Amino acid sequence: MRYFLINKPFGTLSQFTREAPEHRTLADLYDFPPGVYPVGRLDRDSEGLLLLTDDKRLNHRLLDPSYGHARTYWVQVEGKVTEEAIRALAAGPVIRIKGKEHHSRPVGVERIAPALPPRDPPIRVRQQIPDTWLALTLREGKNRQVRRMCAAVGHPVLRLLRYAIEDLTLADLAGQHVREVSVTYLLPRLKIK
């Protein structure tokens, strides 16, 4: 079995197949062996930690909602986030997914000030509107959920980066964009016995 950690750049699809000639995919980042696929997804406009493997049991375990693995996202949102908005996020706001209401599970929320390099391309900046960085820890993974949750409390997302899956973080990449790791390295960080 093979296990790869990557720091997915903005604008890259979490797949190997191009949907249009100009799309960047995971195949543009590294020469991954056949049979290795991402565990979960990050949308094209999101960055950060992604795990790729050919281990189908691990893939199933991490994607099975009954296990509820924690995923932490660093999110730059538009506006100054109030305590009321933080409480609404923490409670799990109601969002719409495929036309249906979904009551999000409670979320860990804290204000942060991460030291990140600028995004390429840069985010839009509006001089009269401040922004806020938050760390959101979710135990479910609906399509574009972080973006929908932040919008539901009045703070559109400017930049979104997955920082961690359980105790596995971007720091585990040791400054690399792609790093192959062993299962003995991976499982304790993912809290899997």
TrEMBL record:
Segments forming domain Pseudouridine synthase RsuA/RluA-like: 3-152
GO BP term, pick one: rRNA processing
UniProt-listed Enzyme Commission number(s): 5.4.99.-
Assigned keywords, A-Z: Isomerase
Domain of life assignment: Bacteria
Entry-linked PROSITE patterns: PSI_RSU
Gene Ontology molecular function: catalytic activity, acting on RNA; pseudouridine synthase activity; RNA binding
Keyword Magnesium (UniProt): no
A Pfam cross-reference name: PseudoU_synth_2
PANTHER family documented for this protein: PSEUDOURIDINE SYNTHASE FAMILY PROTEIN-RELATED (PTHR47683), RNA-BINDING S4 DOMAIN-CONTAINING PROTEIN (PTHR47683:SF2)
NCBIfam families recorded: pseudouridine synthase
Protein family: Belongs to the pseudouridine synthase RsuA family.
Protein's name according to its UniProt entry: Pseudouridine synthase
Native species: Neolewinella aquimaris
